[in-house]
Every structure is written in C-alpha cells, then in structure tokens.
From TrEMBL:
Designated name of the protein: BTB domain-containing protein
ANK repeats (start-end): 16-48
Keyword Repeat among UniProt keywords: yes
Keyword Repeat applies: yes
Keywords: ANK repeat, Repeat
InterPro entries: ABTB1 (IPR044515), Ankyrin_rpt (IPR002110), Ankyrin_rpt-contain_sf (IPR036770), BACK (IPR011705), BTB/POZ_dom (IPR000210), SKP1/BTB/POZ_sf (IPR011333)
Signal peptide: none
Organism expressing this protein natively: Rotaria sordida
Cited PANTHER family: ANKYRIN REPEAT AND BTB/POZ DOMAIN-CONTAINING PROTEIN 1, ANKYRIN REPEAT AND BTB_POZ DOMAIN-CONTAINING PROTEIN 1
Domain BTB residue range list: 96-163, 256-333
GO cellular component, one term: cytoplasm
Record field: transmembrane: none
Pfam families: Ank_5, BACK, BTB
Length: 466
C-alpha cells in the first residue's frame, strides 16, 4: 500500500540513517526484504548500505539473499521514472552531440547537460571547445574512473567512487566547480569511517555510493533552467528564487538542436536528448513518421530540424516542457483537462499523476463524480482513492445526488453476468474505506455503522442488491 499506492520512497532514511531494508534485515523479515529489493531498495555489495544490512541481518537466510541479489537487474522502471531516464541518457548516449575520449574510453555526452550542471563546462563549450564535437583528454591529470564518476554525477546526481580514487575525484570536481559533490564525498567518507571504527570485525567496504540528500532538488532546478531557455523570449517566466528573469539572458540558448513551432508563431529551441528520450511520441515525430517536418528556414540555425506542432497550444506545451526536463510543473485548473489528455497520448504517466494532484484539490460535492470518472478513465489510482475518501467523508450529501445514483447503476451494470448478491465496485470501495480507516475508537465505529446503514438504505432505494 505504501509503495504502490502512496508511492512512498522506499530508500528513505530516519534520523539514525537507517532504511526500511535495514530494519527488515535486522528483524529477520525475509519476504519484506525480498519485496523491498525487488522494488528498488539499494543494497550494493561493498558499500555502506550493503555492508550495514549484511552485518545487521538476523539470520544467514537473509545474508544469502543480500549476497546473491543483483541490484542492477532489479531496479524497476515503473518507479523512479525520471531517475531511470537520466541514467539511460548517460549510459546509452542517445542524441549525443559531443564525444570525450579519456584513456581510450569513449564517452558520448550532451553539451546541454554538462553546461547546465557545471559553469566550467558551459564556459569551455563557449570558449576553447566551441564548435568541437570530439574532445580528446589524453594529457589529463585524472584517470578514466574519476572522469566517469564526475560525469555520472552531473547526469544523475549519483555516482560510485573507489576509496582509492577519492582524492582524484575531489580534485576533478574542484576543477569542474562542483563544491556540492566534494561535500557529499567528505560527508559519506566520514560516515563510513565512523561506522568502521565502531565495529570490532573488519568490513569489506571499498566503494562510496553517493546519493543526493532528500531535499536536494539541484538537478531538477538545473534542467528546469534548460526548459526555461527553450521557451521563446516573449513567453519566458520568472523562476522562483531568481533575482533576474531569464528573458534578460537570451545568450543562454546555446546548445539546442531542435525547434518546435507552436501555435504557428512561437519557436521553442529544445534538446532532442530530453524531448525524444522522455517520450516515444516525439521520437517518432522527429523521425518524420507523421510527415510534420518542415524545411529549415533562414530564421533558424541550419543544423536544427524544425517541427510544427499542430495539436498542442502554448499554454499546454510550456508545462509539458517543464515536466519533460525537470519531472515537475505547475498545472493550472484551466488547462488540467487538456494536459491530462496530452499526457495520456504521449505516454507520460508521471505527468498524468501530476494532473491527478491538481484534480485532488478541486474535489467538492459538485465535482466529485466527474473527477471520479476521470480517475477511472485514465487509471489514476491515487486520485480514485482520494475520491473514495471524499465520498466516505461526505456520504450523506453525495448519496442525495442523481449523478451518484447514475454512477452506481452504471457500476452495477458493468459487472459481467452480475447476480443479485454480487457486489458493486464503487460500493465495495466505500465499504472497504469505512471498515479499514474509520474504526480507530468507539465514536468512529458508531459513525462507520451509521454510514454503512446509509449505504444499505441507498441501495434498497435504487433497487440494487449488493
């Protein structure tokens, strides 16, 4: 329920820096440990978390589970979709526009990502590396593993570092002007040193696994800036916390490689690495599957492809753009209906959930049934549960609505070969909520019984036996 319906982050830490997986191992809950691992709990071998879980495990069965578990194959795409996108963007190098060579290893990367995350790279791409597509770092003072760690951090806010390589990575991070990465390394190393000092037996930790702090939104803010730069000057918005609007910084649009024309007059300079990797719809569109490509014009850079978007208006495309780049966006009540349809067409379940969050704030006696229908139509489980809770809390008023009566009758008719004693889905959900979440004390039990009777009387009145 917590993981699949409430979407609680299962790698969350308490004040003792302990995760749910650690407690499951400590208490010997094998099935829970297996479930957490299958759904993305982190427990890599030879890391702080991995060794701590192994050391604290109640029995050998759980230690064997941890030892045999392959974290790389068990990460789920369903959850942490944005993190998965960033990881694939780095590892697969799709739509790369610059290649680095370090110790004969080739890194297909993206100028927009590196420049957005590091002022060093931004200045270098506009200066000494301007126009270069292949950059050979043969005389570098760092090794390939250090470069890989820093670049992975720039893409994902996460990385692994060998303990033997810490000083080299810190030096490279200092050159790339990444003070936050240096701080993360030092804090994680201090944690490991303290933990090792408290144990009598030797540990097998030889890697640091760096993850962002729970409140660290730096990568989303950096990529949100990329989205802001993609928007035409006349449409750019202020960013919360900025002293100046980006409208005063038109030169920041340096590394876009695609132009979308919206409403026939607004030119959005976007990046294929984000647009085409986040949704298959735009990837197919760019490949000319829908014959919407336009020839380049003198108004645009000759190296950029131009695409006319005919069915998405600017008021919907702007929040869509913010979501694609940063996994977050503000959705107004006026555009949520159209944006939900667009999110469904573009196969963006995360954007659909954000639309669901907007609808949840609009719940009232007047809107509850229409929003419940939307939640079911677009398979928004969390929103549907919120609707059930609202109806349960306002049962007497909702039962008087003709729309609710119609909804229940439709629900009853939807059950194939329904018998008189069969239940009705909406009634089932209401009874479940009332039984599970409203029986805390005696007064709640009395209230629940009254509401159960209201439901039974309502079903009798409309002629449904459930």
């Amino acid at each position: 329920y917590l993981v699949e319906h409430k979407e609680v982050e299962l790698n969350i830490r308490d004040r003792w820096d302990s995760t749910p997986l650690y407690y499951a191992c400590l208490c010997g809950h094998l099935e829970i440990a297996q479930y957490l691992l299958d759904n993305g709990a982190r427990c890599e071998a030879n890391t702080f978390d991995g060794e701590r879980c192994r050391y604290g495990a109640l029995n050998d069965t759980i230690r064997t589970l941890l030892k045999n578990y392959n974290v790389l194959t068990a990460r789920t795409v369903k959850r942490n979709t944005y993190d998965e996108f960033l990881r694939k963007l780095y590892e697969q190098g799709l739509y790369s526009d610059v290649t680095f060579v370090v110790d004969e290893r080739i890194f297909p990367l993206h100028r927009c990502v590196l420049a957005a995350r590091s002022s060093f790279f931004h200045e270098a791409f506009e200066g000494r590396w301007h126009g270069k597509r292949n950059i050979n770092l043969t005389k570098a003072k760092f090794n390939v593993d250090s470069f890989e760690s820093v670049v992975r951090y720039l893409y994902t806010n996460c990385c692994e570092i060998s303990l033997d390589n810490i000083d080299t990575v810190k030096a490279l991070a200092r050159s790339c002007r990444l003070p936050h990465l240096i701080d993360l390394i030092e804090r994680k190393k201090h944690e490991i040193d303290q933990w090792q000092a408290s144990k009598t037996a030797s540990s097998n930790i030889y890697r640091l696994v760096l993850e962002p702090d729970e409140d660290d939104d730096s990568i989303r803010l950096d990529f949100r800036m990329l989205a802001e730069q993609a928007i035409p000057l006349e449409l750019r918005q202020w960013i919360a916390g900025s002293e100046m609007p980006f409208i005063d910084q038109p030169h920041l649009d340096t590394f876009s490689d695609l132009i979308f024309i919206v409403d026939e007059c607004y030119y959005f300079h976007v990046h294929q690495a984000f647009i085409c990797t986040r949704t298959e719809y735009f990837s197919a569109l760019i490949k000319n599957h829908f014959n919407e490509m336009l020839p380049n014009t003198k108004q645009q850079n000759d190296t950029k492809s131009t695409v006319m978007l005919k069915h998405i208006h600017k008021e919907h495309f702007i929040p869509l753009l913010y979501y694609i780049y940063s996994d977050e966006c503000e959705i107004s009540n006026d555009c949520v209906d159209d944006l939900l349809v667009i999110a469904d067409e573009l196969f963006l379940p995360g954007l659909k959930r954000l639309c669901g969050n907007t609808y949840s704030k609009l719940l009232s006696n007047e809107t509850i049934i229409s929003i419940l229908r939307l939640a079911r139509l677009f398979q928004l489980v969390k929103l549907e549960n919120q609707c059930i809770r609202f109806i349960s809390d306002n049962l007497e008023e909702v039962l008087q609505q003709d729309e609710f009566k119609k909804f229940v009758l439709e629900d009853a008719a939807s059950v194939v070969d329904r018998q008189e004693t069969d239940t009705v889905p909406i009634i089932d959900d209401l009874r479940f909520y009332l039984a599970e979440f409203s029986t805390v004390n005696r007064s709640d039990i009395d209230e629940t019984l009254e509401k159960m009777k209201l439901l039974d009387d309502f079903l009798d009145n409309i002629g449904v036996n459930a």
